[in-house]
């Protein structure tokens, strides 16, 4: 007798590099943004690089509640993580702690960058911010 492995939404969350981030607008409606998440199950956090001045950043500075949804490539399973976000940055120093946090995010999400000096400079000039969601709840379904 063979058993089917039980679906774990955390596995899908860890494997996904494209998701939809939901934040809360000032009028209470959701604001949705496509993002490239990096889930660290051991730390219980999701990290996303964004920019200062965008709607999601402004929304999270006002109300830090967030949700992230990811879907399997075949569309037959999904996972949602909910939690409270903190924002780090933007940084003014390419070697400061704010940019170092973005370097760690990049390595987790994409591996090594071909030119770290260029990356660091771009993080400062683009006013990049690291969004970190402390995951409080994960749920999902496999409809396969």
From TrEMBL:
Residues 12-139 form the Pyridoxamine 5'-phosphate oxidase N-terminal domain. Keywords: Oxidoreductase. It comes from the Bacteria. The keyword Oxidoreductase applies. One of its GO terms (molecular function) is oxidoreductase activity, acting on the CH-CH group of donors. InterPro entries: F420-binding_dom_put, F420H2_bilvrd_red/Heme_oxyg, Pyridox_Oxase_N, Split_barrel_FMN-bd. Pfam families: PNPOx_N (PF01243). The keyword Oxidoreductase applies. This is Pyridoxamine 5'-phosphate oxidase N-terminal domain-containing protein.
């Amino acid at each position: 007798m063979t058993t089917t492995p039980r679906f774990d939404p955390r596995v899908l969350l860890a494997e996904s590099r494209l998701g939809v981030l939901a934040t809360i607008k000032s009028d209470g409606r959701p604001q949705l943004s496509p993002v490239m998440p990096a889930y660290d199950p051991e730390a219980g956090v999701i990290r996303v690089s964004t920019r200062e001045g965008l709607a999601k950043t402004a929304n999270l500075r006002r109300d830090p509640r967030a949700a992230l949804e990811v879907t399997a490539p075949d569309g037959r399973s999904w996972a949602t993580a909910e939690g409270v976000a903190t924002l780090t940055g933007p940084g003014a120093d390419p070697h400061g702690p704010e940019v170092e946090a973005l370097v760690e995010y990049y390595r987790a999400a994409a591996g090594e960058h071909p030119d770290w000096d260029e990356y660091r400079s771009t993080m400062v000039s683009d006013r990049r911010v690291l969004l970190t969601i402390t995951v409080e709840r994960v749920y999902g379904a496999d409809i396969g």
